Predict the 3D structure of the following.
Amino acid sequence: MQPQIEALIQQLTLEEKISLLAGADNWHTRPVERLGIPSLKVTDGPNGARGAWGGLATPSACTPVGTALAATWNTGLVEQVGALLGDETRAKGADMLLAPTVNLHRTPLAGRNFECFSEDPFLTAEMAIAYIRGVQSRGVGCCIKHFVCNDQEYQRFSISAEVEERPLRELYLEPFRRAIRDARPLALMTAYNRVRGMYASQHDYLLKTILKGEWGYDGLVISDWGGTYSEAVPSGGLDLEMPGPARWMRPDLVRKALADGSLTPAALDDKVRRLLRALLRSGRFENPQHPPEGMLDTSEQRRLLRRAAQEAMVLLKNEGALPLKDVRRLAVIGSNARWAEIMGGGSSTVIPYYSVSPLQGIRSRAGEEVTVEYAIGAFSGRYPPYPEVEIIQTADGKPGWLLEIYDAPDLQASPVHTRIIRRPNLFFGDIPETFFSQPAMTARLGGIFLPQESGRHTFWLEATGHTEFSLNGKPLIQIRSGQAQNVTRQVEVDLTAGRPYRLEIIYRAASRQPAGWLRFGYLPPHPADLIEEAVALGGRSDAVIIVAGLTPDWESEGFDRLDMRLPGEQDELIRRVAEVNPRTVVVLNCGSPVEMPWLAQVSAVLQMGY
């Protein structure tokens, strides 16, 4: 292996070596075709291999999140889940999965806690070792992240983690050290934040002295996306700046570092060597072309994911309520019961092959022997949920929305790309630049809406750019904004159950930079007093299951939670329902801890996680 790499380094020109220090785009490194050096393709993330299209990607297997996997305490199972993710990474034509996240739960409010394993460095290390071994058993690499002390989202691009040496070593570095020693991840990603005043991506003590020196790490050191900040980057311990094109690994700055001696030719060769080693270990030299992104979704995968989800659930309290017996009329309450929340927010999300809401699952299991009635009770999200895929279909009857993308400021030409999507939540920066020759773009999203209930329906739209929502050709919402500003609007419309309605959203961008955003939400008809409806239902039922919790609106990369309370009126809902039905079971659907002021009033609590 090594002679091949050394021979390539000897043949590379200085310009070619410098070109390998930064990505070509969001997900690929630059190839050197003259020498047969292919590009390395990476993909997010901890919960599944998403692919290069982000929110527009082909569907993927969605595994339980980090906190859920750690709750299994089953390293053998986690290794199997890792192998599944390795297969999924290959199916997306990628060489490296940007995972696992092994930062610690330093505070219960950290917005990304769901993505990490735990607050304990030993448990986190054990999970990470099993996860990496599983993924890499399939011939693809892992990129362990975020090195180090990236334990909050608030001001993550500027915050400095002031950590003394002993807790740095015994807590924050320990999961990385053990995972590197025992599982040899192909790559490591640096954190956005500063540590002791110095940015992690250019921290010589962390990257050179500890990681590459003391630990002898021979893998590739990658920046988090946009996580580089100054001209000191080329001379530091970072090997690859992502995404491309280069910001601080530009040829002029690398040449300047070589000229002033802060970067030696040997250190430059070491950076290149690590990238070539990653390409070699992932087998990309033997198969230089990245295949089209595909899907697996096998019965074996589904059985494994179901088992992992089952083992991830934790029974926190049970005073004889579970398992449910002698129930003929069951109440299911909570917005998280109807709208399945199986992921936190941010870069770790995927488009799942399928999802089953708690309400769907309970009704399926109950069959005809139990009458299952439902009430929303209280909303858990900051924003309205997406329309369920079952009530939206294309003109030819396929479930989902038809997305059409135009390389023009209008809809006169033919679309450059079409696909069916399941969620109307689009980040247009995910669309490959190769689709466009003009600075302007237009997207149209259409579907046939089949309301299940008659009454007043609510439609909600958030967007940047110029966006219009219409129903049966009649414009109902119009947004006019600059690209950098998100604007929200909603409208209420009286509709009839079973009657088809044509929905259309048209998004126009005068410029593709910065990339725009579109999100569409929906609420069915519901009473003004949701809690009263739920209390009445609970009072006439033999038992109650309340699915309460959080959503990606509250738990996400990019921001922290403000407190540990259940959002909205969920605490009041649980308290009121428990007063009228002693057989009240609360299922917590969240990725990090919440307060339970009603704990003494309910019969059972099950932590379901994501």
DSSP finds 15 helices and 25 strands in the chain. The mean pLDDT is 95. The CA atoms of residues 380 and 567 lie 6 Å apart. The longest helix spans residues 75-91.
